[in-house]
Amino acid sequence: MHIPKISTLRREPLWRDKQGVTVAAMAERWGIADSTLRALLDHHGFLETVPYGGQQRRALVPDNVFHAEYGHNVIPGKGSGVFQGDKSTIIFPVLYEEVLDNIWWCLDYAGITEAISNIDNKKWRLNYLLSDHGYLPNTEVALLSGYTVNGVSVARLRRQREQRGMLAA
Question: Would you tell me the crossing angle of helices 34-43 and 100-107 to the nearest 10 degrees?
Fold first, then answer.
């Protein structure tokens, strides 16, 4: 099966008339924070953060995930599951129930938490998370490492400064 590359400029909406599961529902089902699940899905290519409506950014299903039939984006006015406000409509991604087990396996969140549980030193846990899983939100890194969210933010900034210094040298 040919899976096309991800396009950042969409001309055709990625939509099909099929029920799917929202990211929030998946996060609730799997017992992890919505922001953590979005970061995992984005990092592993199941979602793509794209410009939307000027200065906004949305996490949407990319072309390759759509064509592999793992999910689609719910388009306002098409099908069911559309949320409408007073003057705005929201486009959002859904993934299909029959592939959720495969997606959960690919994300390997259990592997991340198991690796963390094998590291005794708090500082080493933080270092591991920032170096190998830096895409995770600060709240999740704090929860897994034992640091405060502020402590994780400071460590992340220090790490960025060190990396810039190494590149400049």
Answer: 80
